[in-house]
Amino acid sequence: MADPLNDDKRSNINLIHLLPNLLTIAAICAGLTAIRFGYEGNFEWAVELVLVACVLDGLDGRLARLMNQSSAVGAELDSLADFVNFGVAPVLILHSWAFQDLRSAGWIAVLIYAICCVLRLARFNVSNREEKDDTCSDFFVGLPSPAGAILVMLPMVISFAVSDLLLTAPIFIAVYICLIGLLMISRIPTYSFKNLSIDRKNAKYALLGAVVLAAALLTYLWATLTLITLIYAGCLVWACRTTRKTKTIEG
């Protein structure tokens, strides 16, 4: 597909074709603004903007494919946006929130997480260029960067849900940040949910569930987000156990 941002053979371009790239740029703006709010002490808004970036990240690529407007520039822009929004913004917000008295050790944790994220994205980009799938059927290899961003912010989200209480010592949060970073560059299988399907007869229940989930997020954002994140963490453990059993049986 020709690149709509760099095609000398056409003098005009439909503005709607730029919509996927505009969503990506909007996601970058959300991530950068989240960093600003984090260092201004407005942590709830900061986390919410990272969540907005996650939503936009899920929309831009799908919209590009639906419009048949996928491009090399769009792919590179999306990767750069992922690094800003999921590799930099979450841990800088955490650094401002948790490491007032542990700035040096906290900064080391920030660097480890950010480098792990960029390595994870680089591995994904290389596998795409080599026309290899980064998934094993229903699984990603390693923790995806958006999921890493949500998991790494879990201590903050829990504290918002339970009266702004710092749940643990900063040194343990630093270790937790490093652990999430290592999960991103690991080879552990993680559910992609791309091939998730349900029986047509149950579609109405899925729609009802989506409405209930949306209402819960709008009404009890932090408690609901905590629950969703913990369920996803449980899915990671289950995916590891499932694939390990499958390999054992096949072996």
Tell me the β content.
Answer: under 5%
Measured on Cα atoms, how large is the radius of gyration? 19 Å
Query: Structural class per helix/strand content?
Result: mainly alpha
Largest sheet: 3 strands, antiparallel
What is the number of E strands? Answer: 3
What is the CATH homology-level superfamily? CDP-alcohol phosphotransferase transmembrane (TM) domain
Given as residue ranges, the uncertain stretches (5+ residues, pLDDT < 50) are 247-251
- The shape is globular
CATH names the topology as: Four Helix Bundle (Hemerythrin (Met), subunit A)
Q: Could you give the order of the helices and strands?
A: HHHHEEHHHEHH
- Number of separate helices: 9
Through-space gap between termini: 42 Å
State the name of the first-level CATH class.
Mainly Alpha
CATH architecture designation: Up-down Bundle
What's this model, at a glance?
With 251 residues, the protein is mainly alpha-helical. The protein is 71% helix and 3% strand.
Structure description:
- By secondary structure, the protein is mainly alpha-helical.
- It has one domain (15-250): Up-down Bundle (Four Helix Bundle (Hemerythrin (Met), subunit A)).
- It has nine helices and three strands.
- It has a three-stranded antiparallel beta sheet with strand order 1-2-3.
Short descriptors:
Four Helix Bundle (Hemerythrin (Met), subunit A); globular; 251 residues; mainly alpha; 3-stranded antiparallel sheet
What's the arrangement of secondary structure elements?
Elements (H helix, E strand, L loop, with lengths): L18 H21 L3 H24 L5 H27 L4 H27 L5 E2 L2 E3 L3 H8 L1 H8 L8 H16 L3 E3 L11 H17 L1 H30 L1
Antiparallel strand pairs: 1-2, 2-3
